[in-house]
Amino acid sequence: MNESNSVREVMTREFVGVSEADGLAETGRLLRAERADGAVVLRGNDPVGTISVGNVLDQLLDADAHEDDTVSEAMESTVPQIDVDDHVESAADQLLSSSVPLLVVFDGSGDVAGVVTESDLVRSVALSRESTAETENLEPARTEGTAESDAGYSNQGICERCGALTSDLVSFNGQLLCSDCRDV
């Protein structure tokens, strides 16, 4: 990953948020509709936990599950968090070392700025590789030589038929040819 990337550059600003009192089946449908791996559980505007698709399924498939089960019964009560200015590597380390599907990103004033998911990190890696590949395929910059070194060759070129270095090239049938090859 590109070390210059901050969490701010890769995070998702729009995220799925649910309440503790929301129905579990309803939350599962919302996560599926939004194609999200998890949601931030909010009490008002304050995050109080997270819930993943796995949490929802585990609770719904439990033999003791009820139709009226709520998010509060299946959610993780910790809020995995990261600062908006932290490096992407920190986010990757936190996501890999925990079982949560997302990190809640906080800005400098303590407000929720967004979330970082594994998908965001994969996208970051793909984009950095793409930009690296683009710069690797560029032709090296040409440098201009001194007047002394170019003086003898400034009016010369290579014949495209015989390969001779000459100052007498003329375009003939789409090729630059020397006087000997034009006569043939």
Describe the structure.
This protein has 184 residues and is an alpha/beta fold. The protein has a domain at 7-129: CBS-domain (Roll), CATH 3.10.580. Helix content is 33%, strand content 22%. It contains seven helices and ten strands. It has helices at 7-10, 24-33, 53-61, 88-97, 118-136, 147-150, 179-183, and strands spanning 17-19, 38-43, 46-52, 81-83, 102-106, 112-117, 157-158, 165-166, 170-172, 175-177. A three-stranded mixed sheet has the order 1-2-3. Strand 1, helix 2 (24-33) and strand 2 (38-43) form a beta-alpha-beta unit. Helix 2 (24-33) runs antiparallel to helix 3 (53-61). The longest helix has 19 residues, at 118-136. The radius of gyration is 31 Å and the shape is elongated. The two termini are 59 Å apart.
Please summarize what this structure is:
This protein is an alpha/beta fold and 184 residues long. It is built from 7 helices and 10 strands.
SSE pattern:
HEHEEHEHEEHHEEEEH
Unreliable stretches, pLDDT < 50, 5 or more residues?
A: 141-147
- State the helix count: 7
Q: Which class do the helix and strand fractions yield?
A: alpha/beta
Binding site for Fe cation: 159, 162, 178, 181
Binding site for Zn(2+): 159, 162, 178, 181
EC number: 1.1.1.205
Protein name: IMP dehydrogenase protein
